Amino acid sequence: MSLQRARDLDRSDPLGELRGQYDIPSGTVYLDGNSLGAPLRSIPGRLAEVVSGQWAGRLIRAWPEHWWDAPVRVGERIAPLVGAAPGQVVVGDSTTVNLFKSIIAGLRIGAGRGRSELAVLGDAFPTDRYIAVSAARMMDSPITTEITERTALVLAGHVDYRTGVIADFAAITEQAHDAGAVILWDLCHSVGALPVELDAHAVDLAVGCTYKFLSGGPGAPAFVYVASALQADYDQPLTGWTGHADPFAMTEDYQAAEGVARARAGTPDMLSMLALDAALDIWDQTSIVDARAKAQQLTQFFVDCVEDLPVTVLAPDPATRGNQVSLRHPDAKDLIARLAEQDILGDFRTPDIARFGFQPLYVSFEDAWRAASALRALLST
Amino acid sequence: MSLQRARDLDRSDPLGELRGQYDIPSGTVYLDGNSLGAPLRSIPGRLAEVVSGQWAGRLIRAWPEHWWDAPVRVGERIAPLVGAAPGQVVVGDSTTVNLFKSIIAGLRIGAGRGRSELAVLGDAFPTDRYIAVSAARMMDSPITTEITERTALVLAGHVDYRTGVIADFAAITEQAHDAGAVILWDLCHSVGALPVELDAHAVDLAVGCTYKFLSGGPGAPAFVYVASALQADYDQPLTGWTGHADPFAMTEDYQAAEGVARARAGTPDMLSMLALDAALDIWDQTSIVDARAKAQQLTQFFVDCVEDLPVTVLAPDPATRGNQVSLRHPDAKDLIARLAEQDILGDFRTPDIARFGFQPLYVSFEDAWRAASALRALLST
């Protein structure tokens, strides 16, 4: 694995030309796009248009003209990335908030089937677990770690945020359905990283994050997927006015909108949402299949570069490895800090994991080689 | 009430020079800043700095360097506007979401006092009522309209969104406390419009909106106030990782942060939050007392201009009128539409209210005169 080999791979990379559309400081190796995606160069111009053209130019009229439908319209742009037919994805609020909506809604569907248990599988991201505990407390639901005939709802994460291991999406979904439970997938580390097939597996509910592989911006709004078949029963607790069937009637009683719009809550944060909208333009120029193919090459190249180093590669099998490589080493925290001094940015996850994300639309093979070389130098001193 | 008189008032207006800092199309009379505040001219530049300087320039490092503390830091800039000492206000999520957090937290405090009733006073904004119903359903709390010795929590709105009437803040707060209940104020139509004295009245909880009188931008994040004395008992249900005592430890169990930071939930929408931060700069150049004084002059001038027209002025008493004038007329919807054709922007609220907001930092007496004159012309044809 040589620099020459990396440069050859970059020269023959059909996605290589997309990198120039991202604004990354020259000389920086950015391997933390699985935490905060790098910005598209188009975003400042788009925000200026939103503020000066729409907000200042049209004032309150911009709401009906440009903004009201944005949560659904931007959701439709994410839908193809997660294998969802139209009418099932809506953008808004944080992942935390969307998890809460969907766990409560899922437990209510389960209650209608005479079930109350909430199964939280694997090493869920802390927020997922915290919100599961909070929702279960409010619904008097026991939390379990196994799917049984008492399970109302299964909460599972598609890609483990620490190890990068891809869960067996098809098998877990099938197991939940065979047991008569509703399944809720957390796609935070898979959306924009690898193909997700929600409709094909008849998934019920999903939530995901847009500021990682989708480069939506810091704290960009999350999304919710509610399968068409379940929408009439999706009874979520954050009954804000924008999820109402007739929001401007300002009626006494809440009546949920038809379709996935009922997952909306309060007034959506439009500047953050329209930056995300701009970031999604890149997907008009490539596909998630091509992006995943390059990411698999990239992560394997990086693994090959570090294979003789005294680190443990978590998720060694490329077939079940997300677009990240996690290395276990007792000095992981210090290693990440020392790489950052050289503008090679990964991140540390407690207690001993050095984590490197490979967003294939802007990470090059030379980036991977440079990160591995710097790591080699640090570990040999 | 003549155009000459309006121009004289504008010439002697000490706040008149602030208007130039807002980006409002020439020729537009903007009387809907109580729905969506007009933008400061500084916002596009600030957003460009956030995207290019912070997000692109620092990538993931921008979180600790610039963003992590923003919800608390921006909250501290709002605190003086609502009469709050430091450490009690945090920004993030929508008003809807913050109402949910605070209603549940308030009901839990009430449960500790052996009470379960939720009193929703007056003509609450629809979302407030919808969320109250949803929260009460989850907590098995009866909803009432009166404060009694069984009341756990009182939810009240400071300024009525339709009529513009200011509630008796001191009396209602005292009544709630005398009954042993927790009080939660909705400040959406009062923050940035008139002085609010949360600490002076020992208010327990409050939420408010930043995209109306504070010009934070479309869907700008809302804020929560939790009085210091109540913070240890503020047990809110949206237990996202940013409200954790040690967010990056990623511990198994949720432990709420000390202080008002426990009202945080998921990752905050930073672009929208930092546009709000820029908008708050205007308050370094004036005070809420001066702004309210001009707003009272403005609304009274407008009322005087329309007093002989066949409309009913809701909130006729200037002492209990917010920074808006609501006029009842059977053709209100059509009147608002025809004014908009002349770039005079108010809004319609069902069934028969024409609503005009007066944000004194950018609305002039001439604006008020022009709106009243156009209304006169429409009503005389």
From TrEMBL, chains A, B:
Q: Catalysed reaction per UniProt?
A: 3-hydroxy-L-kynurenine + H2O = 3-hydroxyanthranilate + L-alanine + H(+); L-kynurenine + H2O = anthranilate + L-alanine + H(+)
Q: What class of enzyme is it?
A: hydrolase
* Pathway entry: Cofactor biosynthesis; NAD(+) biosynthesis; quinolinate from L-kynurenine: step 2/3; Amino-acid degradation; L-kynurenine degradation; L-alanine and anthranilate from L-kynurenine: step 1/1
Q: A single GO BP annotation from the record?
A: L-kynurenine catabolic process
Alphabetically list the UniProt keywords. Hydrolase, Pyridine nucleotide biosynthesis, Pyridoxal phosphate
Q: Does the keyword Hydrolase apply?
A: yes
What is an example of a GO molecular function annotated in this UniProt entry? pyridoxal phosphate binding
Pfam families for this protein? KYNU_C (PF22580)
Q: Which InterPro entries match?
A: Kynureninase, PyrdxlP-dep_Trfase, PyrdxlP-dep_Trfase_major, PyrdxlP-dep_Trfase_small
Which GO cellular component terms are attached? cytoplasm
Query: Which SUPFAM superfamilies is this protein grouped with?
Result: PLP-dependent transferases (SSF53383)
Sections of the chain in a coiled coil? none
The EC designation for this entry is 3.7.1.3
Per its UniProt record, the required cofactor names are: pyridoxal 5'-phosphate
Q: How does it assemble?
A: Homodimer.
Q: Which family does it belong to?
A: Belongs to the kynureninase family.
Q: What does this protein do?
A: Catalyzes the cleavage of L-kynurenine (L-Kyn) and L-3-hydroxykynurenine (L-3OHKyn) into anthranilic acid (AA) and 3-hydroxyanthranilic acid (3-OHAA), respectively.
Name this protein carries in UniProt: Kynureninase
| Species whose genome carries this gene | Labedaea rhizosphaerae
